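6-phosphogluconolactonase (Cycloisomerase 2 family): structure tokens wanted.
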Amino acid sequence: MKHSDINMVTGYLGTYSSPLSEGIYRFTLNKDTGILSGPELFYRLPDCKYLSLYNNLLAAPVKSGDEAGMSLLDIGGGEPSLASKIYEEETTACFVTQDGDFIYSANYHQGIVLIYKKTDGGLILYKRIDIAPGAGCHQILFHEHYMLVPCLLKDEIRIFDRSRDYCPAGSIFFQSGTGPRHGIFTKDHRYLFVVSELSNELYVYRVESGIRMTMLSVTPLLTQEQTKQSLQSPASAAIRFSPDERHLYVSTRFTEIISVFQVQEGQVQLIQQTGSGGIHPRDFVLTENGAYLLAVNRTEGGLVCFPVDPDSGMIGPECSRIPAPEAVSIVLNEA
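Answer:
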């Protein structure tokens, strides 16, 4: 699969282990037409359910027997080369992010955050932060010199001070049964938006200073009728901004929808709810120009590309789709 055309974008899918999936898959998107091509198996890696791409280094969880940990692939040459692999976990992490020096993983089942350091000799374990078994650690966010960890099953976001060796620095608390899953800061870090998996709500906070925040609003993502009609308890998942941050997008599984919000100075207004094109939309991304939204449906429907009106933020009818069994994470390489 060659990608020399300047109108083509390469993307990668992380998957759950299953007879239908073998690891990381690669696909392409035509930025002019919205047509998807592929996928092809890019690298065999069991249970690589979240991906992080940074400067041609692709990080993903890995599992081998009773061990789990982190893998780092160099994809700078177009094809994957294993840069390092390390086993320090019992179950695979559900979230991974990285910067130039470190890889950070949130482990839902073990209730831990692990920080791996990139060295010339490979990955080494730099720091282990034990929160609580079964805490449901689901993401890692950074704000100034703080690290925030949404703990879905503890109904709080734990905060750690990176300038003080990651010592505890406080929490953002939620009502029992809320299940904060993922959050996103505006680029200027004046506002924090948090989506809850269990209560299916959108929380908006204004950042006052440091980690002091004021909650501005709580907006239900679903009506009572939508919840009643769902065959399983609805579970909101991913949250993303449009490139200009005028619109916010949230996926909800088991109602199989993507909600679109208009955003202005921390105020949100629901303007659209549309189908994800399949079943179990755990993740999605928008292209850098905001022209397309790509939704990953784990159970049925595969990877679906939708056009987006950059001005209104509204999602249009699908452009194309490709198979993506058990895919639950997506990254685009638009560099």
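Residues 224-229 form the longest helix (6 residues). The chain is about 0% helix and 60% strand.

Cheers.
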